[in-house]
Specification:
Elements (H helix, E strand, L loop, with lengths): L6 H12 L2 E7 L21 H14 L6 E4 L3 H14 L3 E3 L16 H4 L5 H6 L12 H18 L4 E6 L1 H12 L16 E6 L5 E7 L11
Parallel strand pairs: 1-4, 2-3, 2-4
Antiparallel strand pairs: 1-5, 5-6
Helix pairs in contact: 2-3, 6-7
Length: 224
């Protein structure tokens, strides 16, 4: 028969489950095509020198928060961004498929200057909830996917601070969902390369702690 937890162990377990879970959402650093091409899920895209410097800076900012786990989408640019964060925390990077970039389908790899001329671009910007990329994913499916992934991570790490390295659109969708903002307005949110946004999960709906932090001290996000 398994032994019952002592009073001290019970108190510690209760504290862990009642403390909020904080997820630090980090967008990957700059690549050679950031701002000019819609790379989507195409493989073989790596951080530029600037992107690697951004990742190192993000790691230095995040390390004082003592994260207990670091997750990244399966793409190279997110794993390369996560690497210095994991090293600084003495952790290994784990892969979470739900953090993947939106599947842009036939638009993958297209130049943004070309896409902006398409009639569908206005819908992407102003009513994205009803748009599906040809041969790809809808924004609604993307939002549901990352929402489910984040709740899964919360269940796996109750009461902890963890890092999730993802991409601009999924992070924007997660922030909009947490803030109770309709998906049609999510394009109004800015998520810069290697910015840190933070969500706190305390049993109910997530709370937005910060958005698009690129240079600020993150110490205020440490559990009190």
């Amino acid at each position: 028969m398994a032994s019952r937890p002592t009073g001290t162990r019970r108190a510690r377990n209760k504290e862990t489950t009642t403390r909020p879970t904080t997820i630090l959402l980090v967008r990957h650093g700059r690549t050679g095509t950031t701002g000019s091409v819609l790379p989507g899920r195409a493989k073989g895209l790596h951080l530029s020198d600037e992107g690697r410097a951004q990742a190192d800076a993000a790691a230095a900012r995040i390390a004082p928060l003592s994260p207990t786990a670091v997750y990244a989408s399966p793409l190279e640019r997110t794993k390369e961004t996560a690497a210095p964060i994991s090293r600084a925390a003495g952790l290994r990077t784990r892969t979470a498929k739900g953090l993947l970039e939106c599947d842009f389908g036939e638009w993958t790899g297209a130049k943004l200057s070309t896409l902006r001329k398409r009639p569908e671009w206005q819908q992407v910007q102003h009513s994205p909830s009803g748009f599906r990329f040809p041969g790809g994913e809808s924004f609604t499916e993307m939002q549901e996917r990352i929402r489910g992934e984040l709740w899964s991570l919360v269940a796996r790490h109750p009461g902890e601070t963890i890092v999730a390295v993802s991409h601009a659109d999924p992070i924007k969708a997660a922030l909009a969902d947490a803030a109770g903002t309709h998906l049609d307005l999510f394009q109004r949110i800015v998520v810069s390369p290697c910015s840190v946004s933070a969500l706190m999960y305390a049993g109910g709906a997530p709370i937005v702690l910060t958005m698009n932090s690129t240079g600020d001290d993150l110490s205020s996000l440490a559990p009190s």
